[in-house]
């Protein structure tokens, strides 16, 4: 029996119409041979009925109905055990995936057997996978993502942390690391822990700017419930206890600056490439202006570093086309 291109694992818990339903609709537009596994963490009857109906409409879909809520880790681990592909995509239920996105992720992993994990860019991640978008609707944001991808060709770079809204992991890597740690309960920091263990094991984590996936996200942390905030605090302590330190990856704003600096290194006299780099530089430049530190001292040094990166990029671009290639600074 032929193995599917990859196994997409989605953990579901209630709110089908607002989350899993839209996610599955987006996957239904993908013509590639996918295996789609939804692990439902003991949702209400309305959601379970909707999932049963979805299986009748999507032959590639399998649903695992759990009798208790085993959290994000437990749900993904259950899906991974049932998966038949050697490539696993852990996909949040509040995402929408454009056609062609998953085949491109798989293609890149096939081309780079040394890569262990791979993530796309998005509108909501909280790390340098996030690009600037301003659309008011899902479709407007997806259109912005498509425009970004049209300006990005074979642009990938290593990282020490991937957001698990959408992440492709080799099955042998998932097994090597014993999956997600279920001690983190319902959620939070299990992805940070997995990233850390992968880096510690010497594995290669990559971001590709060639693929965009929409992610609704949970909004401001300050607006979350007291129970969620308490869960985050508890799991942060658990992570520190396990690994001997807190989360130690560089701040998102610094990773975004590093991405901008990389564009300067890629400049050439190819007109199309100059336009692509200018587009992406301006996008991340807008993001950089929104990520100013609160501390006056940190802000001073951050802005100085940003100004140096902007100046270097302008110099590199103008060296090829001083009249036409200059970016418009915000």
3D architecture notes:
- The structure is a single chain.
- This protein is an alpha/beta fold and about 325 residues long.
- It folds into 2 domains: about 5-215, Spore Coat Polysaccharide Biosynthesis Protein SpsA, Chain A (Alpha-Beta Complex); about 250-320, no CATH class.
- The protein has 11 helices and 10 strands.
- It has helices at about 20-30, 45-55, 70-80, 100-110, 140-150, 170-175, 190-200, 225-245, 250-265, 270-290, 295-320; strands at about 5-10, 35-40, 60-65, 85-90, 95, 115-120, 155-160, 165-170, 205-210, 215.
- The strands form 2 sheets. The protein has an 8-stranded mixed beta sheet with strand order 3-2-1-4-8-6-9-7. The chain has a two-stranded antiparallel sheet with strand order 5-10.
- Helix 1 links the parallel strand 1 (about 5-10) and strand 2.
- Helix 9 packs antiparallel against helix 10 and helix 9 packs parallel to helix 11.
- The model is unreliable at about 220-225 and about 320-330 (pLDDT under 50).
The number of strands is 10
| Radius of gyration over all CA atoms, rounded | 20 Å
Just give the CATH class of the largest domain.
Alpha Beta
Q: What is the rounded distance between the termini?
A: 55 Å
Broad structural category: alpha/beta
Helix content: 40-55%
Order of helices and strands: EHEHEHEEHEHEEHHEEHHHH
